[in-house]
Amino acid sequence: MFIKFTVVAGPSINMYEKEALKMIKAMGLSGTVPSAMSPEDILPALTMLESKLNINVAEAESPSQSGYRDDFVDAKTRAFPLIELLKYAIKENKSVMWDRD
Q1: What is the pTM (predicted TM-score) of this model?
Q2: Domain segments of the chain: what residues?
Q3: d(Cα 93, Cα 7) in Å, to the nearest integer?
Q4: How far apart are CA 101 and CA 99, in angstroms?
Q5: What is the dihedral of CA 6, 98, 23, 70, to 10 degrees?
Q6: Phi, psi of 54 (to 5 degrees)
Q7: Taking a C-beta distance cutoff of 8 angstroms, is the pair 13, 96 a contact?
Q8: In what order do the strands lie in the sheet with 2-7?
Q9: What number of other Cβ atoms are within 10 A of residue 58's Cβ?
Q10: I need a surface site. Which of 45, 49, 51, 53 has the fewest CB within 10 A?
Q11: In this structure, are residues 67 and 41 in contact, taking their beta carbons and an 8 Å threshold?
Q12: Read out DSSP for the chain?
């Protein structure tokens, strides 16, 4: 199942539900679907998401996980489309909504 993130009168993205819920919670939100963020709430949520993703990347790059894994996509890579969507919403001063798709 997917969750669709949409900027009001703007672009949208789909993300697997499992990953989307992790991202929503990493933004400091409850994980409720459907839900939305008002324009003034997006910047703090984006800051928190990027902060948590940077911590996860540092942990994933630890020496204990040396070697190549072709089945691993880090959370920061998975979050890239959502981060760009949030940045667009901030720039355009628009709300972001999400719901199951």
Answers
A1: 0.85
A2: 2-56+73-100
A3: 10
A4: 6
A5: -70
A6: -65, -35
A7: no
A8: 12-16, 2-7, 96-100, 35-37
A9: 9
A10: 51
A11: no
A12: -EEEEEETTS-EEEEEHHHHHHHHHHTT----SSEEE-HHHHHHHHHHHHHHHHHHHHHHTSGGG-S--TT---HHHHHHHHHHHHHHHHHHT--EEEEE-
Please, are residues 32 and 100 in contact by the beta-carbon 8 Å criterion?
no
Q: Per residue of the chain (101 residues), what is the pLDDT tens digit?
A: 999 999 998 999 999 999 999 999 999 999 999 999 999 999 999 999 999 998 865 565 555 555 655 557 788 899 999 999 999 999 999 999 999 99
Distance CA 3, CA 21 (A): 8
Q: Which residue has the tokens 């630890």?
A: 62
Neighbours of 74 (CB within 10 A): 13
